[in-house]
Amino acid sequence: MARTISSKKPKNLGFTLHMLFRYMGRHLALLLLVALLVTVSSVAGLLGTYMIRPIVNELAGGNRHTLLLGVLEAGGIFLVGVVTAYGYTQLTVRMAQKVLFDIRRDLFAHVQKLPLRFFDATPHGDVMSYFTNDVDTVADALNNSFSMTIQSFIQIAGTLVILYVLNWRLSLVVTLCYLVMFLYIRYSGRHSKKYYDRQQKHIGALDGYIEETVTGQKVVKVFNHEAENLAAFREKNEALRRAGTGAQGYAATMVPAVVSISYVNYAIVAVLGGIMAMQGLTDVGSLASYLVFVRQAAAPINQFTQQSNFLLAALAGAERIFEVLRMAPEPDEGGVTLVHAEERDGVLRETEVPTKTWAWRKTDGTLQKLCGDVRFADVTFGYRANHPILQHVSLYAKPGQKIAFVGATGAGKTTITNLINRFYDVQGGSVLYDGIDVRDIRKDDLRRSLGIVLQDTHLFTGTIADNIRFGKPGATMEEIEQAARIASADSFIRRLPQGYDTFVTADGANLSQGQRQLLAIARAAVADPPVLILDEATSSIDTRTERLIEKGMDSLMQGRTVFVIAHRLSTVRNANAILVLAHGRVVERGTHDELLAQKGMYYKLYHGMFELS
Protein backbone atom coordinates (compact mmCIF):
# COMPACT_ATOMS: atom_id res chain seq x y z
CA MET A 1 0.00 0.00 0.00
CA ALA A 2 1.30 3.43 -0.85
CA ARG A 3 2.14 5.68 2.03
CA THR A 4 0.18 8.82 2.56
CA ILE A 5 3.26 10.77 3.55
CA SER A 6 6.62 10.41 1.89
CA SER A 7 9.52 12.76 1.64
CA LYS A 8 12.76 12.77 -0.30
CA LYS A 9 13.67 16.38 0.52
CA PRO A 10 12.46 19.00 2.99
CA LYS A 11 8.97 20.05 1.95
CA ASN A 12 8.30 22.96 4.27
CA LEU A 13 11.15 23.61 6.69
CA GLY A 14 9.72 27.00 7.65
CA PHE A 15 6.39 25.47 8.67
CA THR A 16 8.13 22.70 10.65
CA LEU A 17 10.21 25.21 12.62
CA HIS A 18 7.15 27.41 13.13
CA MET A 19 5.15 24.50 14.58
CA LEU A 20 8.05 23.35 16.76
CA PHE A 21 8.51 26.85 18.21
CA ARG A 22 4.75 27.11 18.75
CA TYR A 23 4.85 24.01 20.95
CA MET A 24 7.89 25.33 22.79
CA GLY A 25 6.17 28.71 23.13
CA ARG A 26 3.40 27.09 25.18
CA HIS A 27 5.99 26.94 27.96
CA LEU A 28 7.46 30.38 27.31
CA ALA A 29 8.42 31.15 30.92
CA LEU A 30 10.41 27.92 31.20
CA LEU A 31 11.91 28.47 27.75
CA LEU A 32 13.08 32.01 28.60
CA LEU A 33 14.54 30.84 31.91
CA VAL A 34 16.51 28.11 30.13
CA ALA A 35 17.76 30.64 27.56
CA LEU A 36 18.78 33.05 30.35
CA LEU A 37 20.69 30.39 32.30
CA VAL A 38 22.40 29.14 29.13
CA THR A 39 23.42 32.72 28.31
CA VAL A 40 24.80 33.32 31.83
CA SER A 41 26.70 30.01 31.72
CA SER A 42 28.18 30.78 28.30
CA VAL A 43 29.15 34.34 29.20
CA ALA A 44 30.71 33.07 32.43
CA GLY A 45 32.85 30.65 30.43
CA LEU A 46 33.97 33.45 28.11
CA LEU A 47 34.76 35.88 30.95
CA GLY A 48 36.61 33.20 32.89
CA THR A 49 38.83 32.55 29.89
CA TYR A 50 39.30 36.31 29.33
CA MET A 51 40.63 36.56 32.91
CA ILE A 52 43.77 34.74 31.71
CA ARG A 53 44.96 38.05 30.23
CA PRO A 54 45.20 40.06 33.49
CA ILE A 55 46.35 37.02 35.46
CA VAL A 56 49.28 36.38 33.08
CA ASN A 57 50.17 40.08 32.99
CA GLU A 58 50.10 40.30 36.81
CA LEU A 59 52.16 37.12 37.01
CA ALA A 60 54.73 38.63 34.66
CA GLY A 61 54.76 41.81 36.79
CA GLY A 62 55.22 39.86 40.05
CA ASN A 63 52.21 41.42 41.84
CA ARG A 64 51.05 38.52 44.01
CA HIS A 65 48.19 40.32 45.76
CA THR A 66 46.54 41.39 42.50
CA LEU A 67 47.27 37.93 41.05
CA LEU A 68 45.40 36.27 43.94
CA LEU A 69 42.40 38.56 43.48
CA GLY A 70 42.38 37.77 39.76
CA VAL A 71 42.45 34.03 40.42
CA LEU A 72 39.57 34.35 42.93
CA GLU A 73 37.54 36.42 40.47
CA ALA A 74 38.10 33.84 37.74
CA GLY A 75 37.13 31.05 40.14
CA GLY A 76 33.92 32.86 41.09
CA ILE A 77 33.02 33.40 37.45
CA PHE A 78 33.56 29.72 36.63
CA LEU A 79 31.49 28.73 39.70
CA VAL A 80 28.57 30.82 38.43
CA GLY A 81 28.96 29.03 35.10
CA VAL A 82 28.83 25.60 36.75
CA VAL A 83 25.74 26.42 38.85
CA THR A 84 23.80 27.91 35.93
CA ALA A 85 24.83 24.97 33.70
CA TYR A 86 23.35 22.56 36.24
CA GLY A 87 20.20 24.66 36.41
CA TYR A 88 19.57 24.87 32.68
CA THR A 89 20.21 21.14 32.12
CA GLN A 90 17.53 20.25 34.66
CA LEU A 91 15.05 22.80 33.33
CA THR A 92 15.71 21.73 29.74
CA VAL A 93 14.66 18.17 30.57
CA ARG A 94 11.44 19.43 32.15
CA MET A 95 10.65 21.71 29.23
CA ALA A 96 11.43 18.97 26.69
CA GLN A 97 9.13 16.48 28.41
CA LYS A 98 6.31 19.02 28.57
CA VAL A 99 6.67 19.75 24.83
CA LEU A 100 6.78 16.04 23.99
CA PHE A 101 3.72 15.44 26.17
CA ASP A 102 1.84 18.09 24.18
CA ILE A 103 2.97 16.70 20.82
CA ARG A 104 2.00 13.11 21.69
CA ARG A 105 -1.35 14.22 23.12
CA ASP A 106 -2.23 16.35 20.09
CA LEU A 107 -1.00 13.73 17.64
CA PHE A 108 -3.01 10.94 19.26
CA ALA A 109 -6.13 13.11 19.51
CA HIS A 110 -5.78 14.21 15.88
CA VAL A 111 -5.14 10.70 14.53
CA GLN A 112 -8.41 9.54 16.12
CA LYS A 113 -10.23 12.28 14.19
CA LEU A 114 -8.77 11.33 10.81
CA PRO A 115 -11.02 9.57 8.30
CA LEU A 116 -10.72 5.83 7.72
CA ARG A 117 -9.13 6.57 4.34
CA PHE A 118 -5.96 7.57 6.19
CA PHE A 119 -5.75 4.20 7.97
CA ASP A 120 -6.62 2.35 4.77
CA ALA A 121 -3.71 4.02 2.97
CA THR A 122 -1.16 4.02 5.83
CA PRO A 123 0.32 0.79 7.28
CA HIS A 124 -0.20 0.38 11.02
CA GLY A 125 3.54 0.19 11.61
CA ASP A 126 3.98 3.51 9.86
CA VAL A 127 1.36 5.10 12.10
CA MET A 128 3.20 3.69 15.12
CA SER A 129 6.44 5.16 13.77
CA TYR A 130 5.01 8.66 14.17
CA PHE A 131 4.58 8.06 17.92
CA THR A 132 7.87 6.23 18.45
CA ASN A 133 10.73 6.95 16.01
CA ASP A 134 9.61 10.41 14.93
CA VAL A 135 8.74 11.62 18.42
CA ASP A 136 11.98 10.09 19.76
CA THR A 137 14.09 12.10 17.31
CA VAL A 138 12.36 15.28 18.46
CA ALA A 139 12.95 14.19 22.06
CA ASP A 140 16.69 13.71 21.43
CA ALA A 141 16.95 17.19 19.94
CA LEU A 142 15.01 18.90 22.74
CA ASN A 143 16.84 17.04 25.52
CA ASN A 144 20.33 17.33 24.07
CA SER A 145 20.50 19.91 21.32
CA PHE A 146 18.30 22.87 22.27
CA SER A 147 20.40 24.30 25.10
CA MET A 148 23.66 23.14 23.52
CA THR A 149 22.82 24.96 20.28
CA ILE A 150 22.10 28.22 22.14
CA GLN A 151 25.28 27.79 24.15
CA SER A 152 27.35 27.11 21.03
CA PHE A 153 25.93 30.16 19.24
CA ILE A 154 26.64 32.46 22.21
CA GLN A 155 30.15 31.06 22.63
CA ILE A 156 30.95 31.42 18.93
CA ALA A 157 29.61 34.98 18.76
CA GLY A 158 31.15 35.94 22.11
CA THR A 159 34.50 34.43 21.21
CA LEU A 160 34.61 36.42 17.96
CA VAL A 161 33.82 39.66 19.81
CA ILE A 162 36.53 39.06 22.42
CA LEU A 163 39.04 38.04 19.73
CA TYR A 164 38.47 41.34 17.95
CA VAL A 165 38.86 43.19 21.26
CA LEU A 166 42.14 41.43 21.97
CA ASN A 167 43.64 41.64 18.46
CA TRP A 168 41.57 42.68 15.44
CA ARG A 169 44.36 41.92 12.95
CA LEU A 170 44.68 38.26 13.91
CA SER A 171 40.88 38.02 14.12
CA LEU A 172 40.60 38.61 10.38
CA VAL A 173 42.36 35.27 9.85
CA VAL A 174 40.06 33.59 12.40
CA THR A 175 36.97 35.05 10.73
CA LEU A 176 38.07 33.70 7.36
CA CYS A 177 38.51 30.21 8.86
CA TYR A 178 35.09 30.50 10.56
CA LEU A 179 33.56 31.35 7.21
CA VAL A 180 35.09 28.26 5.57
CA MET A 181 33.81 26.10 8.44
CA PHE A 182 30.22 27.33 8.19
CA LEU A 183 30.13 27.04 4.42
CA TYR A 184 31.11 23.39 4.72
CA ILE A 185 28.64 22.80 7.57
CA ARG A 186 25.87 24.33 5.44
CA TYR A 187 26.77 22.15 2.44
CA SER A 188 27.00 18.95 4.50
CA GLY A 189 23.86 19.74 6.52
CA ARG A 190 21.76 20.33 3.40
CA HIS A 191 22.66 16.91 2.01
CA SER A 192 22.31 15.21 5.40
CA LYS A 193 18.77 16.58 5.84
CA LYS A 194 17.73 15.03 2.55
CA TYR A 195 18.96 11.60 3.64
CA TYR A 196 17.53 11.97 7.16
CA ASP A 197 14.11 12.51 5.58
CA ARG A 198 14.55 9.33 3.55
CA GLN A 199 15.76 7.49 6.65
CA GLN A 200 12.61 8.39 8.62
CA LYS A 201 10.46 7.31 5.68
CA HIS A 202 12.20 3.92 5.38
CA ILE A 203 12.06 3.37 9.16
CA GLY A 204 8.28 3.76 8.97
CA ALA A 205 8.06 1.36 6.02
CA LEU A 206 10.26 -1.22 7.78
CA ASP A 207 8.27 -0.94 11.03
CA GLY A 208 5.05 -1.45 9.07
CA TYR A 209 6.41 -4.55 7.35
CA ILE A 210 7.68 -6.05 10.61
CA GLU A 211 4.33 -5.40 12.35
CA GLU A 212 2.44 -6.96 9.45
CA THR A 213 4.72 -10.02 9.32
CA VAL A 214 4.69 -10.65 13.07
CA THR A 215 0.89 -10.34 13.19
CA GLY A 216 0.50 -12.83 10.35
CA GLN A 217 3.05 -15.41 11.53
CA LYS A 218 0.54 -18.28 11.37
CA VAL A 219 -0.20 -17.54 7.73
CA VAL A 220 3.53 -17.18 7.00
CA LYS A 221 4.29 -20.60 8.48
CA VAL A 222 1.30 -22.31 6.88
CA PHE A 223 2.43 -21.27 3.40
CA ASN A 224 6.20 -21.59 4.07
CA HIS A 225 6.65 -17.96 3.15
CA GLU A 226 9.67 -17.32 5.40
CA ALA A 227 12.18 -17.07 2.53
CA GLU A 228 10.04 -14.60 0.55
CA ASN A 229 9.45 -12.51 3.67
CA LEU A 230 13.16 -12.45 4.41
CA ALA A 231 13.89 -11.30 0.85
CA ALA A 232 11.35 -8.46 1.16
CA PHE A 233 12.77 -7.55 4.56
CA ARG A 234 16.29 -7.42 3.16
CA GLU A 235 15.12 -5.08 0.40
CA LYS A 236 13.51 -2.67 2.87
CA ASN A 237 16.42 -3.00 5.27
CA GLU A 238 18.85 -2.23 2.43
CA ALA A 239 16.88 0.91 1.53
CA LEU A 240 17.12 2.00 5.18
CA ARG A 241 20.84 1.20 5.24
CA ARG A 242 21.49 3.33 2.15
CA ALA A 243 19.51 6.26 3.56
CA GLY A 244 21.21 5.92 6.96
CA THR A 245 24.64 5.70 5.36
CA GLY A 246 23.97 8.84 3.33
CA ALA A 247 22.71 10.74 6.36
CA GLN A 248 25.50 9.68 8.70
CA GLY A 249 28.12 9.85 5.94
CA TYR A 250 27.66 13.55 5.32
CA ALA A 251 27.12 14.30 9.01
CA ALA A 252 30.23 12.36 10.04
CA THR A 253 32.50 14.58 7.92
CA MET A 254 31.49 17.76 9.76
CA VAL A 255 33.51 17.30 12.97
CA PRO A 256 36.77 16.12 11.28
CA ALA A 257 36.53 19.00 8.81
CA VAL A 258 35.96 21.57 11.57
CA VAL A 259 38.79 20.12 13.69
CA SER A 260 41.23 20.15 10.74
CA ILE A 261 40.39 23.74 9.82
CA SER A 262 40.67 24.82 13.49
CA TYR A 263 44.16 23.23 13.74
CA VAL A 264 45.29 25.11 10.65
CA ASN A 265 43.73 28.27 12.05
CA TYR A 266 45.50 27.83 15.41
CA ALA A 267 48.87 27.21 13.79
CA ILE A 268 48.62 30.31 11.60
CA VAL A 269 47.46 32.53 14.47
CA ALA A 270 50.15 31.20 16.85
CA VAL A 271 52.94 31.99 14.36
CA LEU A 272 51.58 35.43 13.46
CA GLY A 273 50.85 36.24 17.13
CA GLY A 274 54.39 35.25 18.16
CA ILE A 275 55.83 37.55 15.50
CA MET A 276 53.59 40.42 16.66
CA ALA A 277 54.61 39.86 20.33
CA MET A 278 58.29 39.95 19.42
CA GLN A 279 57.70 43.22 17.56
CA GLY A 280 55.83 44.70 20.53
CA LEU A 281 52.48 44.87 18.74
CA THR A 282 50.74 42.89 21.53
CA ASP A 283 51.44 41.99 25.16
CA VAL A 284 52.08 38.45 26.37
CA GLY A 285 48.88 38.26 28.45
CA SER A 286 46.72 39.26 25.50
CA LEU A 287 48.47 36.73 23.25
CA ALA A 288 48.09 33.93 25.84
CA SER A 289 44.39 34.71 26.32
CA TYR A 290 43.95 35.07 22.56
CA LEU A 291 45.48 31.66 21.82
CA VAL A 292 43.30 30.01 24.46
CA PHE A 293 40.22 31.55 22.87
CA VAL A 294 41.33 30.44 19.41
CA ARG A 295 41.95 26.93 20.73
CA GLN A 296 38.55 26.88 22.44
CA ALA A 297 36.79 28.39 19.44
CA ALA A 298 36.72 24.99 17.75
CA ALA A 299 34.88 23.43 20.72
CA PRO A 300 31.52 25.24 20.29
CA ILE A 301 31.71 24.74 16.53
CA ASN A 302 32.37 21.02 17.00
CA GLN A 303 29.56 20.95 19.51
CA PHE A 304 27.25 22.68 17.05
CA THR A 305 28.12 20.27 14.23
CA GLN A 306 27.59 17.25 16.49
CA GLN A 307 24.21 18.57 17.63
CA SER A 308 23.27 19.31 14.02
CA ASN A 309 22.90 15.54 13.48
CA PHE A 310 20.22 15.43 16.18
CA LEU A 311 18.64 18.60 14.80
CA LEU A 312 18.49 17.29 11.25
CA ALA A 313 16.94 13.99 12.35
CA ALA A 314 14.54 15.88 14.61
CA LEU A 315 13.45 18.17 11.77
CA ALA A 316 12.82 15.13 9.55
CA GLY A 317 10.75 13.47 12.29
CA ALA A 318 8.95 16.69 13.23
CA GLU A 319 8.12 17.33 9.57
CA ARG A 320 6.35 13.95 9.35
CA ILE A 321 4.49 14.56 12.62
CA PHE A 322 3.30 18.02 11.65
CA GLU A 323 2.24 16.82 8.21
CA VAL A 324 -0.12 14.42 9.98
CA LEU A 325 -1.36 17.22 12.22
CA ARG A 326 -2.06 19.31 9.10
CA MET A 327 -4.32 16.64 7.64
CA ALA A 328 -7.97 17.57 7.59
CA PRO A 329 -9.93 15.68 10.26
CA GLU A 330 -12.97 13.59 9.44
CA PRO A 331 -15.66 16.09 8.39
CA ASP A 332 -18.54 16.42 10.81
CA GLU A 333 -20.84 19.26 9.89
CA GLY A 334 -23.89 17.65 11.46
CA GLY A 335 -26.02 19.71 13.81
CA VAL A 336 -28.65 17.12 14.73
CA THR A 337 -27.95 15.48 18.08
CA LEU A 338 -29.26 12.46 19.98
CA VAL A 339 -30.92 12.99 23.36
CA HIS A 340 -32.90 11.03 25.93
CA ALA A 341 -36.60 11.81 25.84
CA GLU A 342 -39.89 10.95 27.50
CA GLU A 343 -43.37 11.07 26.01
CA ARG A 344 -46.22 12.52 28.07
CA ASP A 345 -49.69 13.13 26.68
CA GLY A 346 -48.37 12.62 23.18
CA VAL A 347 -45.70 15.33 23.64
CA LEU A 348 -41.99 14.46 23.40
CA ARG A 349 -39.77 16.16 25.96
CA GLU A 350 -36.00 16.01 26.44
CA THR A 351 -34.76 14.64 29.75
CA GLU A 352 -31.34 14.31 31.34
CA VAL A 353 -32.40 11.08 33.05
CA PRO A 354 -31.56 8.03 30.86
CA THR A 355 -34.67 6.47 29.36
CA LYS A 356 -35.50 3.83 26.78
CA THR A 357 -36.73 6.53 24.44
CA TRP A 358 -34.33 8.43 22.20
CA ALA A 359 -35.02 11.49 20.09
CA TRP A 360 -33.26 13.59 17.48
CA ARG A 361 -32.85 17.20 18.52
CA LYS A 362 -32.81 19.22 15.31
CA THR A 363 -31.00 22.50 14.75
CA ASP A 364 -34.24 24.44 15.28
CA GLY A 365 -34.66 22.84 18.74
CA THR A 366 -37.56 20.55 17.83
CA LEU A 367 -37.52 16.87 18.84
CA GLN A 368 -38.21 13.89 16.61
CA LYS A 369 -38.49 10.40 18.04
CA LEU A 370 -35.80 7.95 16.97
CA CYS A 371 -37.61 5.12 15.22
CA GLY A 372 -34.89 3.40 13.18
CA ASP A 373 -36.20 4.06 9.68
CA VAL A 374 -33.22 3.82 7.30
CA ARG A 375 -33.42 4.54 3.58
CA PHE A 376 -30.95 4.77 0.71
CA ALA A 377 -32.04 7.16 -2.04
CA ASP A 378 -30.18 6.64 -5.34
CA VAL A 379 -26.81 6.19 -3.57
CA THR A 380 -23.57 6.03 -5.56
CA PHE A 381 -20.24 5.46 -3.83
CA GLY A 382 -16.68 4.30 -4.51
CA TYR A 383 -13.61 4.12 -2.31
CA ARG A 384 -11.60 5.52 -5.22
CA ALA A 385 -12.60 8.04 -7.83
CA ASN A 386 -14.03 6.51 -11.02
CA HIS A 387 -14.31 3.08 -9.33
CA PRO A 388 -17.90 2.91 -8.01
CA ILE A 389 -18.75 0.10 -5.58
CA LEU A 390 -22.44 1.04 -5.27
CA GLN A 391 -24.37 2.36 -8.26
CA HIS A 392 -27.74 4.08 -7.83
CA VAL A 393 -28.75 1.92 -4.86
CA SER A 394 -32.16 2.55 -3.34
CA LEU A 395 -33.47 0.51 -0.40
CA TYR A 396 -35.42 0.92 2.80
CA ALA A 397 -35.62 -0.63 6.25
CA LYS A 398 -38.68 0.18 8.30
CA PRO A 399 -38.46 0.38 12.10
CA GLY A 400 -38.20 -3.07 13.66
CA GLN A 401 -37.40 -4.84 10.39
CA LYS A 402 -34.57 -7.29 9.97
CA ILE A 403 -32.88 -6.70 6.62
CA ALA A 404 -30.36 -9.20 5.27
CA PHE A 405 -27.78 -8.57 2.55
CA VAL A 406 -26.47 -11.44 0.45
CA GLY A 407 -24.25 -11.55 -2.58
CA ALA A 408 -20.82 -12.45 -3.81
CA THR A 409 -17.68 -11.03 -2.23
CA GLY A 410 -17.19 -7.46 -3.40
CA ALA A 411 -20.85 -6.92 -4.20
CA GLY A 412 -21.03 -3.98 -1.75
CA LYS A 413 -22.68 -5.50 1.34
CA THR A 414 -20.24 -4.13 3.92
CA THR A 415 -20.01 -0.85 2.04
CA ILE A 416 -23.72 -0.24 2.67
CA THR A 417 -23.24 -0.55 6.43
CA ASN A 418 -20.14 1.69 6.24
CA LEU A 419 -22.31 4.41 4.73
CA ILE A 420 -25.01 4.09 7.40
CA ASN A 421 -22.55 4.85 10.21
CA ARG A 422 -20.64 7.39 8.07
CA PHE A 423 -17.30 5.66 8.01
CA TYR A 424 -17.50 7.09 4.51
CA ASP A 425 -19.81 9.65 2.92
CA VAL A 426 -21.84 9.01 -0.22
CA GLN A 427 -20.73 10.61 -3.49
CA GLY A 428 -24.23 10.68 -4.93
CA GLY A 429 -27.74 10.39 -3.51
CA SER A 430 -28.38 10.33 0.23
CA VAL A 431 -28.76 8.04 3.25
CA LEU A 432 -31.77 8.99 5.38
CA TYR A 433 -32.18 8.06 9.04
CA ASP A 434 -35.72 8.75 10.25
CA GLY A 435 -36.00 11.09 7.26
CA ILE A 436 -32.83 13.00 8.27
CA ASP A 437 -29.78 12.94 6.00
CA VAL A 438 -27.04 11.23 8.03
CA ARG A 439 -24.66 13.99 6.97
CA ASP A 440 -26.77 16.37 9.05
CA ILE A 441 -26.39 14.21 12.18
CA ARG A 442 -23.37 14.68 14.40
CA LYS A 443 -21.21 11.61 13.99
CA ASP A 444 -20.84 10.81 17.69
CA ASP A 445 -24.62 10.82 18.10
CA LEU A 446 -25.22 8.88 14.89
CA ARG A 447 -22.85 6.11 15.94
CA ARG A 448 -24.23 6.11 19.48
CA SER A 449 -27.58 5.08 18.01
CA LEU A 450 -25.99 2.12 16.21
CA GLY A 451 -24.76 -1.20 17.56
CA ILE A 452 -22.18 -2.74 15.24
CA VAL A 453 -20.54 -6.15 15.30
CA LEU A 454 -17.76 -6.19 12.74
CA GLN A 455 -16.49 -9.22 10.89
CA ASP A 456 -12.98 -8.62 12.26
CA THR A 457 -13.28 -8.69 16.02
CA HIS A 458 -10.92 -6.59 18.08
CA LEU A 459 -10.47 -6.87 21.83
CA PHE A 460 -8.53 -4.47 24.01
CA THR A 461 -6.07 -5.17 26.79
CA GLY A 462 -8.07 -5.49 29.99
CA THR A 463 -10.60 -7.81 31.59
CA ILE A 464 -13.49 -9.47 29.79
CA ALA A 465 -15.86 -7.22 31.71
CA ASP A 466 -13.92 -4.15 30.50
CA ASN A 467 -14.19 -5.31 26.89
CA ILE A 468 -17.95 -5.78 27.12
CA ARG A 469 -18.29 -2.44 28.94
CA PHE A 470 -16.56 -0.81 25.95
CA GLY A 471 -20.01 -0.69 24.32
CA LYS A 472 -21.40 1.30 27.25
CA PRO A 473 -18.75 2.88 29.52
CA GLY A 474 -21.12 3.28 32.47
CA ALA A 475 -22.57 -0.24 32.31
CA THR A 476 -23.08 -2.01 35.63
CA MET A 477 -21.90 -5.56 36.24
CA GLU A 478 -25.52 -6.71 36.05
CA GLU A 479 -25.90 -5.15 32.57
CA ILE A 480 -22.63 -6.73 31.45
CA GLU A 481 -23.74 -10.19 32.56
CA GLN A 482 -27.15 -9.73 30.91
CA ALA A 483 -25.46 -8.75 27.63
CA ALA A 484 -23.20 -11.80 27.89
CA ARG A 485 -26.22 -14.05 28.41
CA ILE A 486 -27.93 -12.57 25.32
CA ALA A 487 -24.80 -13.30 23.29
CA SER A 488 -24.48 -16.81 24.84
CA ALA A 489 -21.06 -15.81 26.19
CA ASP A 490 -21.92 -16.06 29.89
CA SER A 491 -21.46 -19.84 30.00
CA PHE A 492 -17.88 -19.92 28.67
CA ILE A 493 -16.91 -16.79 30.65
CA ARG A 494 -17.91 -18.40 33.96
CA ARG A 495 -15.84 -21.47 33.11
CA LEU A 496 -12.69 -19.33 32.90
CA PRO A 497 -10.49 -19.27 36.05
CA GLN A 498 -11.20 -15.58 36.81
CA GLY A 499 -14.59 -15.38 35.09
CA TYR A 500 -15.45 -11.84 34.05
CA ASP A 501 -12.15 -10.65 35.57
CA THR A 502 -10.13 -12.82 33.17
CA PHE A 503 -7.46 -10.64 31.57
CA VAL A 504 -7.47 -10.40 27.78
CA THR A 505 -4.07 -9.97 26.14
CA ALA A 506 -2.74 -9.51 22.60
CA ASP A 507 -6.14 -8.84 21.04
CA GLY A 508 -7.66 -11.88 22.73
CA ALA A 509 -4.92 -14.39 21.88
CA ASN A 510 -5.82 -16.36 25.01
CA LEU A 511 -9.36 -16.91 23.65
CA SER A 512 -10.65 -18.80 20.64
CA GLN A 513 -11.90 -16.92 17.59
CA GLY A 514 -15.47 -17.95 18.39
CA GLN A 515 -15.16 -16.71 21.98
CA ARG A 516 -13.77 -13.39 20.77
CA GLN A 517 -16.74 -12.99 18.46
CA LEU A 518 -19.20 -13.77 21.26
CA LEU A 519 -17.62 -10.98 23.32
CA ALA A 520 -17.95 -8.60 20.35
CA ILE A 521 -21.67 -9.43 20.16
CA ALA A 522 -22.03 -8.91 23.92
CA ARG A 523 -20.28 -5.55 23.54
CA ALA A 524 -22.94 -4.48 21.02
CA ALA A 525 -25.75 -5.90 23.16
CA VAL A 526 -24.78 -3.93 26.27
CA ALA A 527 -25.07 -0.68 24.28
CA ASP A 528 -28.79 -1.46 23.79
CA PRO A 529 -28.91 0.41 20.45
CA PRO A 530 -32.01 1.25 18.39
CA VAL A 531 -30.30 -0.04 15.21
CA LEU A 532 -28.08 -3.11 14.94
CA ILE A 533 -25.55 -3.89 12.19
CA LEU A 534 -24.21 -7.44 12.15
CA ASP A 535 -21.40 -7.87 9.62
CA GLU A 536 -20.78 -11.63 9.50
CA ALA A 537 -21.25 -11.58 13.27
CA THR A 538 -21.54 -15.36 13.52
CA SER A 539 -18.96 -16.35 10.91
CA SER A 540 -16.62 -17.92 13.48
CA ILE A 541 -19.25 -19.60 15.65
CA ASP A 542 -20.38 -23.18 15.35
CA THR A 543 -23.95 -23.96 14.33
CA ARG A 544 -25.07 -25.02 17.83
CA THR A 545 -23.78 -21.80 19.42
CA GLU A 546 -25.33 -19.80 16.60
CA ARG A 547 -28.77 -21.22 17.42
CA LEU A 548 -28.33 -20.20 21.06
CA ILE A 549 -27.29 -16.70 20.00
CA GLU A 550 -30.28 -16.33 17.71
CA LYS A 551 -32.67 -17.01 20.57
CA GLY A 552 -31.08 -14.22 22.58
CA MET A 553 -30.74 -11.96 19.56
CA ASP A 554 -34.43 -12.34 18.74
CA SER A 555 -35.33 -10.62 21.99
CA LEU A 556 -32.59 -8.04 21.44
CA MET A 557 -33.87 -7.30 17.93
CA GLN A 558 -37.47 -6.66 18.98
CA GLY A 559 -38.42 -3.09 18.13
CA ARG A 560 -35.05 -2.51 16.49
CA THR A 561 -33.97 -2.14 12.90
CA VAL A 562 -31.37 -4.80 12.13
CA PHE A 563 -29.03 -5.10 9.17
CA VAL A 564 -27.42 -8.51 8.73
CA ILE A 565 -24.62 -9.52 6.41
CA ALA A 566 -24.32 -13.29 6.46
CA HIS A 567 -24.19 -16.36 4.28
CA ARG A 568 -25.66 -18.93 6.65
CA LEU A 569 -29.29 -19.72 5.85
CA SER A 570 -30.22 -19.88 9.53
CA THR A 571 -29.36 -16.20 9.83
CA VAL A 572 -30.87 -15.06 6.54
CA ARG A 573 -34.13 -16.96 6.11
CA ASN A 574 -36.04 -15.33 8.99
CA ALA A 575 -35.34 -11.78 7.80
CA ASN A 576 -38.24 -9.49 6.91
CA ALA A 577 -36.50 -8.72 3.64
CA ILE A 578 -33.48 -10.15 1.87
CA LEU A 579 -31.60 -7.90 -0.55
CA VAL A 580 -29.43 -9.59 -3.16
CA LEU A 581 -26.54 -7.45 -4.39
CA ALA A 582 -24.50 -7.91 -7.54
CA HIS A 583 -21.97 -5.51 -9.03
CA GLY A 584 -23.00 -2.71 -6.69
CA ARG A 585 -26.72 -2.90 -7.39
CA VAL A 586 -29.74 -4.39 -5.63
CA VAL A 587 -30.96 -7.01 -8.08
CA GLU A 588 -33.56 -8.80 -5.90
CA ARG A 589 -35.60 -8.04 -2.79
CA GLY A 590 -38.10 -10.19 -0.93
CA THR A 591 -38.56 -12.73 1.81
CA HIS A 592 -36.82 -16.08 1.77
CA ASP A 593 -39.84 -17.87 0.28
CA GLU A 594 -40.54 -15.10 -2.25
CA LEU A 595 -36.99 -15.13 -3.57
CA LEU A 596 -36.91 -18.91 -3.83
CA ALA A 597 -40.11 -18.77 -5.85
CA GLN A 598 -38.52 -16.28 -8.26
CA LYS A 599 -35.72 -18.79 -8.98
CA GLY A 600 -33.25 -15.98 -9.56
CA MET A 601 -29.82 -15.28 -8.09
CA TYR A 602 -30.89 -15.97 -4.50
CA TYR A 603 -32.31 -19.32 -5.58
CA LYS A 604 -28.92 -20.23 -7.03
CA LEU A 605 -27.09 -18.99 -3.94
CA TYR A 606 -29.44 -20.92 -1.69
CA HIS A 607 -28.94 -24.24 -3.45
CA GLY A 608 -25.21 -23.65 -3.69
CA MET A 609 -25.05 -23.07 0.07
CA PHE A 610 -27.27 -26.06 0.75
CA GLU A 611 -24.94 -28.30 -1.17
CA LEU A 612 -21.90 -26.92 0.62
CA SER A 613 -23.54 -27.42 4.01
From TrEMBL:
InterPro entries: AAA+_ATPase, ABC1_TM_dom, ABC1_TM_sf, ABC_transporter-like_ATP-bd, ABC_transporter-like_CS, P-loop_NTPase, Type_1_exporter. Coiled coil: none annotated. Residues 32-313 form the ABC transmembrane type-1 domain. Residues 374-608 form the ABC transporter domain. PROSITE patterns: ABC_TM1F (PS50929), ABC_TRANSPORTER_1 (PS00211), ABC_TRANSPORTER_2 (PS50893). SUPFAM superfamilies: ABC transporter transmembrane region, P-loop containing nucleoside triphosphate hydrolases. The keyword Transport applies. One of its GO terms (cellular component) is plasma membrane. Its main location: membrane. PANTHER family: ATP-BINDING CASSETTE SUB-FAMILY B MEMBER 10, MITOCHONDRIAL, ATP-DEPENDENT PERMEASE MDL1, MITOCHONDRIAL. The chain crosses the membrane at residues 68-88, 146-166, 172-189. It is a multi-pass membrane protein. It is found in: Cell membrane. One of its GO terms (molecular function) is ATP binding. This is ABC transporter ATP-binding protein. Keywords: ATP-binding, Membrane, Nucleotide-binding, Transmembrane, Transmembrane helix, Transport. The keyword Lipid metabolism does not apply.
